[in-house]
Amino acid sequence: MIPLEDARSFVLSGVEVGEATTVPVDDCLHLVTAADIAATGPIPPFDNTAMDGFAVRSADVADAPVTLRMVGTIAAGAKPDIEVGPGEAVRIMTGAPMPPGADSVVMVELTSMSEDEGTVEVAQSVPVGNHIRPAGDDVTPGQTVFVAGTELSPAHLGVCTSIGVYDVPVIRRPRVGVISTGDELVDAPVPLEVGQIRDSNRHTLLSLVRRMGVEGVDLGLVPDDEEQIRAAMVGAAESCDAVITSGGVSMGDFDYVKKVLSEIGDMRWMQVAIKPAKPLAFGTVGGTPIFGLPGNPVSSMVSFELFARPGIRKMMGHPDPVPTPVRGVAGADMLRGSDGKTHFARVHAKPNADGVFEASFAGGQGSHQLSAMAASNALAMLPDGTGARVGDPVDLLLL
User: Fold this and answer.
1) Which residues lie closer than 8 Å to 143 by C-beta, 6 or more apart?
2) What CA–CA distance (Å, rounded) separates 359 from 391?
3) CB of 64 within 8 A of CB of 122?
4) Does pTM surpass 0.85?
5) Run of H or E residues at 178
6) Within this chain, do residues 183 and 293 fall inside the same structural domain, yes or no?
7) Contact assessment for residue 172 and residue 33, using Cβ atoms and an 8 Å cutoff
8) Are residues 34 and 156 in the same domain?
9) How many CA atoms lie within 13 A of 280 on its CB side?
C-alpha cells in the first residue's frame, strides 16, 4: 500500500495551476487572485461621519449643554460647501463628508433641534474626531489589499469595488467534469430491478465540485459499452480541465473504464493506506487530469476530500491546496483495529465548553453508509493502532 502523503503528492504533481485571466468582479466569487491587488486611493476617500447628528467645533461644546446656530444640512453624497464657524453647527447624515471648520460630530440622540429658531441644543461635550471616519482609515493609497493566491469571498469582492477594481486578475475558473458508467446504475425515480442501484455518486461529486466555486460539468451516465466509454472519456478530456469518475479502480476490477483509461491515458492505479477509499486512480488523458475515485458512496466522498479537492485547489491557484486539519478531542470512544491504514471516521464535531472541537461518530462507519456521511461535518483521522478514547486528542478534517 502507498502512504497517503505519497499518493497525494503524486496527484498534485500531475496537476498544473490554471491560466491567469481577468474576470468581472461579479463573476469572481471563490476564484483566486493571480496578482497582488493594490489601492490607488484612500478608503474612505474623504472624512465622513459615522452617525446622523451635527457637525460642530468641539471647542464650542466643551461647556455643554450649549445652544448652537444651525447653518445648513449635508446629506450623504452632497458636497460639503458649508463652513462651520464659531458657535455654529451643521446637520449631517451618516456617510456625508465633513464640512470645513468642523472637527467633531455629536450624534442626534444628544441634541434637541429647534427648526423655528434655527438652533440646536447640544447636551454633552465631545472630543475632537468624535464619530468621524477619516480618509484612509480602512485602506491607504498604494496599500496591497490582497496578495496573489487569495481566495475571493463576498467581502473581498466588496473591497475590490470600493477601490475601483471591477476587472480582477484571477486564475481561470476550471471546468471539472463528472461522469458515471455502468449498466447497473439508474438515474431516475423509477422502481429498481434486482441488481440495480441509483447513481448517487455523480450528483454528490458534482455538488462537491460546484461548492468549491468550480464549474461542474455533468457528463452523464454512460452504459457499459467500450466504444461509448472511450468516446465519452476522450470528449470529457477535450472539453474539461479535469475529469472525475467513480468505481472500477480496485486492483481486481475488470471494468471498461479501467481498460479504456489504460489505453488512452497515462494512468496509475494505486492502493492507498487509508480506510475508506483505499483504491485510487490518477493520471492524464491528453494532458487533462483524471481522478478515478472508488465506487462506494462514502469512499468516493472521502477520496474526493483527500485527493480531488487538493488537486482542484491547486488548479485554482491556491498556494496551500491541502486543507489543514484542526486539533480536537474524542467526545466518545472511537476504537479501531490495527491494519496498517489511517482511518477517516465520519464524525460530528462541535465546540465544547472550552471551545475545543469534540467529535463523535455520526453513524455507521461502513463505506456504503452514506447517511452517516450526510450527518457528519468532519473526518476524524485515526492513525494505525487502537483508535481514540474519550478525551484523547484527534485531528479533524472539517468538511
Assistant:
1) 38, 39
2) 10
3) yes
4) yes
5) strand 175-181
6) yes
7) no
8) yes
9) 30
Record the cell numbers describing residue 87, joined without a space: 458657535
Residue 158 contacts by C-beta under 8 Å, 6 or more apart in sequence? none
User: Can you list the residues of the chain whose pLDDT is less than 70?
Assistant: 250-254
The amino acid that residue 105 corresponds to is V
How many CB atoms are located within 10 Å of the residue 338 CB? Answer: 10
CATH number, residue 242: 3.40.980.10
The CATH code of the domain that includes 33 is 3.90.105.10
Number of compact structural domains in the chain:
4
Same domain, 333 and 374: yes
Q: Cβ–Cβ contacts within 10 Å for residue 6, how many?
A: 13
Backbone angles phi, psi at 235, to 5 degrees: -65, -40
Domain holding 150, by residue range, is 20-43+137-171
Does 111 fall in a domain? yes
227-269 pLDDT tens trace: 999 999 999 999 999 999 998 776 666 678 888 999 999 999 9
Question: How would you classify residue 239: left for phi > 0, otherwise alpha for psi between -120 and 50, otherwise beta?
Answer: alpha
